[in-house]
């Protein structure tokens, strides 16, 4: 039985959840990141996250038809409560995201110029900037879809946006004082302050590679895309892989220091923010998210799913974590002498860099029917890239989750793999998928469709906007520019960059001011909704595990 425990308005699945998954939280003792290539410290992108809920694919066409012999549950089509489809709307019950308000008019370009690039001086930030909103349009953004005027109605955000309320719930009642923000300084990589629409940063600790650079670049794109909509704010940001604000240290959750980072877990209170790779990862030649999605869609069409190799693929640094070393035992030709239907390859990022990344293009790794996702030392950015191919993702259980993966559904978007039984679990998943190609192919399509429809850059920016807007509302003081902070703008970052970093900045730069409303943020989950989601997820996993055990007995 799963134990549900209240946490700042949320119900969290605790130790019994790990016991159910046969996963020890310390199976890979982490601190920062994978360093896969040894000498040069290049870092693996093959890391992972954590599921939250589940459903079958559809009431009329279930993914697991044989579950009916085991007393299958009857579930609604929508896996998140209150997200049923609406008549006359597009996929996922929502109209198209953009509804331009400048009918017939040209879109306003975002000004940018590097001027004299022969100068070694850092370009000065232009003085003309959008004013900070007060109280409009920020207040308008916070209205529910029912409260908005009819002319201002916009599409409802994806359901995972509801976790914004959950992440900020520890401070909902008491608010956030300046002292609380400053208590996170020792853990933070940098401090970001936005005043009157301008961004200022004070750096405290070095980030790995260019994580901080591209995170800040993404925030500048948000300010340019939605001028005047980002309110004054003051926040601390940690660029690591492991949540550091431990819930156990703060019996009174309102006393926890608010700290933004890329992931969270049940035992942590960190505030989840989109990771830097959405704007590119130059050190390993991973393009910004929007062009990557276009490229991987083209590559996926080159090899239809039925023509792909009928095995599970993984490529990464196997030396960073015991869990990955265990995974390598599932490889064909391993000491076990068995074929577990896995084809696993070691990635040397140092060699890849010297070789011009010729064999490391993630968009071209769509030639296998199944793809494995396994964590490194901690949270992983790799999940969205693995899911993008349209091949079912075999996801080894892990406690870490980022902002969008909380919308994933076991049995719909991915196949959960028991970390304690990786080899037989992988073999069963592949055997089952090859025996049920229509259902397996649909799972792959559901995963890649989630990325295209729920994780476009439009929604990444809208998530950032809603999160920062609601965070700013909790501040109990007026943010001011720190004495040692430096102003950031498009020119000061892009014009001083070079090589692949500059290429990716230019490729991910927003070109026009948004002439449409952001999506409308749904309300928070209730405790009952969260409890039901967690219980459904457990029941689906139990049924899938039972299928596997029954297969072994035959």
TrEMBL record:
Domain Glycosyl transferase CAP10: 229-478
Cross-referenced InterPro entries: CAP10, O-Glucosyltr/Glycosyltrsf_90
Residue numbers spanned by region Disordered: 80-108
Protein's name in the database: Glycosyl transferase CAP10 domain-containing protein
Source organism superkingdom: Eukaryota
Pfam families named among the record's database cross-references: Glyco_transf_90 (PF05686)
């Amino acid at each position: 039985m799963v134990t549900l425990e209240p946490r700042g308005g949320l119900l969290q699945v605790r130790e019994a959840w790990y016991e159910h998954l046969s996963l020890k939280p310390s199976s890979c003792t982490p601190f920062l990141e994978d360093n896969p290539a040894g000498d040069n410290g290049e870092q693996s992108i093959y890391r992972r996250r954590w599921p939250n809920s589940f459903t079958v694919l559809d009431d009329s066409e279930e993914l697991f038809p044989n579950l009916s012999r085991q007393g299958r549950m009857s579930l609604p089509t929508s896996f998140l409560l209150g997200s049923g489809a609406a008549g006359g709307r597009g996929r996922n019950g929502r109209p198209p995201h953009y509804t331009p308000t400048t009918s017939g008019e040209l879109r306003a370009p975002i000004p940018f110029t590097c001027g004299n690039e022969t100068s070694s001086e850092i370009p000065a930030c232009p003085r003309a900037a959008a004013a900070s909103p007060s109280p409009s349009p920020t207040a308008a953004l916070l209205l529910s879809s029912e409260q908005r005027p009819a002319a201002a109605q916009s599409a409802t955000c994806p359901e995972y946006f509801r976790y914004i309320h959950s992440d900020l719930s520890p401070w909902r009642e008491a608010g956030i004082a300046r002292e609380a923000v400053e208590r996170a300084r020792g853990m933070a990589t940098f401090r970001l302050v936005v005043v009157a629409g301008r961004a200022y940063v004070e750096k405290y600790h070095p980030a790995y590679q260019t994580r901080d650079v591209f995170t800040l670049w993404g925030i500048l794109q948000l300010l340019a895309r939605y001028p005047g909509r980002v309110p004054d704010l003051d926040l601390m940001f940690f660029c690591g892989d492991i949540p550091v604000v431990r819930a156990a240290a703060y019996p009174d959750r309102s006393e926890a220091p608010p700290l933004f980072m890329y992931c969270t877990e049940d035992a942590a209170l960190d505030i989840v923010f989109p990771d830097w790779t959405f704007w590119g990862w130059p050190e390993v030649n991973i393009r910004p998210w929007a062009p990557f999605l276009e490229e991987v869609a083209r590559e996926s069409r080159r090899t239809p799913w039925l023509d792909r190799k009928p095995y599970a693929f993984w490529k990464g640094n196997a030396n960073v974590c015991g869990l990955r070393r265990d995974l390598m035992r599932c490889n064909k030709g391993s000491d076990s002498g068995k074929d577990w239907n896995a084809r696993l390859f070691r990635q040397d990022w140092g060699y890849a860099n010297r070789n011009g990344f010729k064999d490391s293009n993630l968009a071209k790794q769509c030639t296998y029917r199944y793809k494995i996702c396994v964590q490194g030392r901690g949270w992983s950015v790799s999940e969205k890239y693995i899911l993008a191919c349209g091949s079912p993702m075999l996801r080894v259980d892990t406690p870490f989750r980022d902002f969008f993966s909380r919308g994933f559904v076991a049995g719909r978007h991915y196949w959960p793999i028991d970390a304690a039984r990786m080899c037989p679990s992988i073999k069963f998943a592949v055997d089952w998928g090859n025996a049920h190609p229509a259902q397996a192919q649909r799972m792959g399509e559901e995963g890649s469709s989630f990325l295209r429809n729920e994780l476009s850059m439009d929604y990444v920016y809208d998530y950032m906007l809603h999160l920062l807007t609601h965070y700013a509302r909790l501040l109990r003081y007026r943010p001011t520019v720190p004495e040692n902070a430096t102003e950031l703008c498009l020119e000061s970052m892009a014009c001083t960059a070079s090589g692949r970093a500059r290429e990716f900045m230019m490729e991910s730069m927003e070109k026009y001011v948004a002439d449409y409303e952001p999506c409308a943020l749904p309300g928070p989950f209730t405790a009952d909704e969260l409890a039901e989601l967690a219980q459904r997820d457990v029941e689906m996993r139990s049924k899938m595990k039972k299928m596997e055990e029954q297969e072994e007995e035959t």
